[in-house]
């Protein structure tokens, strides 16, 4: 029983591999060298390297492959590349804390004008003034799932009010349907997008939704760049009516001369929400547990699509 994992020595930190399991390592880079054809012919479970998009080239070379464990939460593009009969499992839960932290950081930076104060520091100025606040704000979390839930906990600790929005309404959890979104936005101070990219979400947060937000509202995107209409957003921020804090953009990477980079009231980070020190230990634990389940003939965690 052969499995392919992205990091060596997982057994040293997480205990011995199950009996009968042969573990091979490939980190997804050309420098490391791909596994031999003999190994590829036998691999049944592949825990794919993180942030290594070229690794998918191996998929046609894995005739015995039965399951793929991605370390990303959004796997729609990967799903389209999988051979028939191969089960897909995503990294649900791995990025919750990291993404929620960055979303909160972007919100606080925008509300409390941290970029402005950093510029003032470098300029040698000392000219304090009052700023906006997160406390007392109404925040819509659009795409409310595990990441949204983690963000909500942090927002509540900052005395914000949270409005939950998901694809379908869940009245028992006080979650609104996305079909209600336009009406909800009229009373929202901060709209946070935590949406995956699929046919139903590309361009979903469009000019109509942006127009529904009150003046001076903040738009935050830590989901996928293409879920937000960049042209419509640019029009709003250039007019000074809305502000934005974006970890993901469309296009991505964002060209050096893209007008979003210099638009007023816009803060951008280069898709780093999931990239913190919390990721690796959580990813390792998930991989080890999936290998254990695979060897025992048990159902794997995080099937995609979910039940």
From TrEMBL:
Keywords: NAD, Oxidoreductase. InterPro entries: D-isomer_DH_NAD-bd, NAD(P)-bd_dom_sf. Gene3D superfamilies: NAD(P)-binding Rossmann-like Domain. It comes from the Bacteria. Residues 104-273 form the D-isomer specific 2-hydroxyacid dehydrogenase NAD-binding domain. One of its GO terms (molecular function) is NAD binding. It holds the Pfam family 2-Hacid_dh_C. This is Dihydrofolate reductase.
């Amino acid at each position: 029983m052969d499995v392919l994992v992205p990091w060596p020595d997982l057994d040293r930190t997480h205990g011995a591999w199950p009996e009968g399991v042969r573990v091979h390592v490939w980190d997804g880079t050309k420098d490391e060298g791909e596994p031999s054809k003999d190994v590829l012919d036998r691999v049944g479970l592949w825990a794919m390297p993180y942030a290594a998009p070229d690794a998918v080239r191996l998929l046609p070379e894995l005739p015995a492959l039965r399951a793929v464990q991605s370390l990303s939460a959004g796997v729609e593009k990967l799903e389209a590349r999988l051979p028939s009969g191969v089960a897909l499992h995503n990294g649900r839960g791995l990025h919750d804390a990291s993404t929620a932290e960055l979303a909160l950081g972007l919100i606080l930076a925008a509300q409390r004008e941290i970029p402005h104060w950093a510029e003032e520091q470098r300029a040698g100025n000392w000219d304090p003034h009052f700023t906006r606040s997160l406390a007392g704000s109404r925040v819509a979390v659009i795409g409310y799932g595990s990441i949204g839930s983690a963000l909500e906990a942090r927002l509540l600790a900052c005395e914000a009010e949270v409005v939950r929005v998901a694809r379908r309404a869940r009245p028992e959890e006080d979650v609104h349907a996305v079909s209600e979104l336009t009406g909800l936005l009229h009373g929202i101070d901060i709209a946070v997008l935590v949406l995956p990219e699929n046919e139903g979400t590309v361009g979903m947060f469009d000019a109509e939704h942006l127009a529904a937000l009150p003046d001076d509202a903040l738009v935050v995107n830590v989901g996928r760049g293409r879920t937000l209409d960049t042209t419509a957003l640019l029009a709003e921020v250039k007019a000074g009516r809305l502000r934005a804090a974006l970890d993901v953009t469309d296009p991505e990477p964002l060209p050096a001369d893209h007008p979003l980079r210099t638009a007023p009231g816009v803060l951008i980070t280069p898709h780093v929400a999931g990239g913190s020190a919390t990721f690796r230990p959580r990813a390792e634990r998930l991989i080890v547990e999936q290998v254990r389940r695979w060897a025992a003939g048990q159902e794997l965690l995080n099937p995609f699509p979910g039940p």
